[in-house]
Amino acid sequence: MKAAYFLFFSSVILCLTACTTSGRYSMRHDAAPSVHPEQLNTDDAEPKFEPYAPANLKPYTVLGKNYTPLNSAKGYTETGTASWYGQKFHGHLTSNGEIYDMYAMTAAHKTLPLPSFVKVTNLDNNKTAIVRVNDRGPFHGGRIIDLSYAAARKLGVLATGTAPVKLESVYVDEEGLVSIGNQPARQPEMAQITNTISPAPSVLATLPAAQKAADALYIQVIASQNGEKIQQLADGLAALYQVPTSVPNDNGVYRLRLGPIKDELDASVLLQELQNNGYENAYKVYLSQ
Hints:
Layout: E1 7-8, H1 10-14, E2 60-62, E3 65-67, E4 77-84, E5 106-108, E6 116-122, E7 128-135, E8 143-147, H2 149-155, E9 163-172, E10 178-180, H3 190-193, E11 217-224, H4 227-241, E12 245-246, E13 249-250, E14 253-258, H5 264-276, E15 283-286
Parallel strand pairs: 1-11, 4-8, 5-7
Antiparallel strand pairs: 2-3, 4-9, 5-8, 6-7, 6-9, 9-10, 11-14, 11-15, 12-14, 13-14
């Protein structure tokens, strides 16, 4: 691949939401991963107190419709239709400024404050899951929540695509008191609320978390003049793919690189994964130390 730097304008990066259509995605239509992991961790997300990001409480407009986020998730319940989103958005920024990992127990909601925790019950089969809401959507009529691939798999929604669900917030205040839906707050009994969760494995979780490669092999993902957003994306990709990142500044252009990566095969697999997830201009680069 010819090593040519590709400059993304900051406006492109600022408009990253899970459930809207944008030319930054390599896939026109969403899909499940081509290989379904056999050892997928579908333990519930662990509810805890997390302050809401002020920027995520501001009214916003999508497809000509205005939305006003709730000031608090406490007491929230809702019944409606759930859908799910997967491969198309995997590895891209969510509305909360994190990286969407379809193998994690997360979800998107139009008005819940971000981040929030929600207990989802599939009314067709009574299966339940607790998810962490860190994204906006779904912006389709009649749907109230977009589940990650992992959450949809646990709830039995993959085969049907949608399902009737009941949503109940799992709200944890600063004192550690927990309230589920409109029930009174009480001391947490986590064994009855959720299982202990460990980070859901990425497809490339086998890549070393930190390496010192003698050949200084990197993958350059994108370049941008918006250093803050590039660093935010770098932090998310590092967590998602478990590889170190660097963001050197070259005359006002920030270049997001993953690495160093010692193994050529690991680098090739990672490059293919990135290109499949919308970073089609990513390429390998060898840098002298």
